[in-house]
Amino acid sequence: MKSVYFVRHGQTVWNVENKICGATDIELTALGHEQAIETGKKILEKKIEADVILYSPLVRAKDTALHISEITGIPAKEEMRLKEQNFGKYESTPRHGEEFEEAKPKVIECFEHILPEKSEYATNDDLFAYQAKVMKELIKENSFIVIGRGGDY
Fold it and tell me: How far from the centroid of its chain's Cα atoms is residue 43's Cα?
């Protein structure tokens, strides 16, 4: 039976500062590296089996995946379709900042305003359908571990 396991990337400086990361490439903190190593050890301890570890193209996901791969022996591979959502001008701003909180309910509806390029997702339903489609395509061939951020999946 094929399985999918979701793992959040390790801690970043912007996580500590409670800033929106989105598609900005932010590195792991020392604690984030330790968290990734501990996750790899837990995967071994729990005897979780997977054919591959897939990670988004950002360094925080890559480093988390590579730590886990080194410990478990499960090969790691970048998967572009797992890229994080781009929050445009809101990236690096406080997660609960007034301007972002006001815009959040309309984020999907106003992608053209927020993002530097037009989004391929017109509604939340389209975004969720896209994510489901990617997962279905990936699981056809492998059991895998996905490294991303908490809100992606």
Answer: 18
Distance of CA 12 to the CA centre of its chain: 13
Catalytic residue among 67, 79, 84, 91: 84
Tally of CB atoms within 10 A around 55: 27
Residue % of the chain over a pLDDT of 70: 79
Are residues 32 and 12 in contact, defined by beta-carbon separation less than 8 angstroms?
Answer: yes
Determine the average pLDDT of the residues in 99-116. Answer: 62
Query: How confident is the model at residue 64, as a pLDDT?
Result: 97
Check 9, 67, 79, 91 and give the catalytic one: 9
| Token duo for residue 16 | 């500590």
Q: Is 47's pLDDT higher than 50? A: yes
SS3 content of the chain, % helix, strand, coil (to 5): 45, 15, 40
| Contact (Cβ atoms closer than 8 angstroms) between residue 20 and residue 87 | yes
Query: Cα 141 to chain center, whole Å?
Result: 21
- N-to-C CA span, the chain: 21
- Whole-model pTM: value is 0.81
**Does the active-site annotation cover 91?**
no
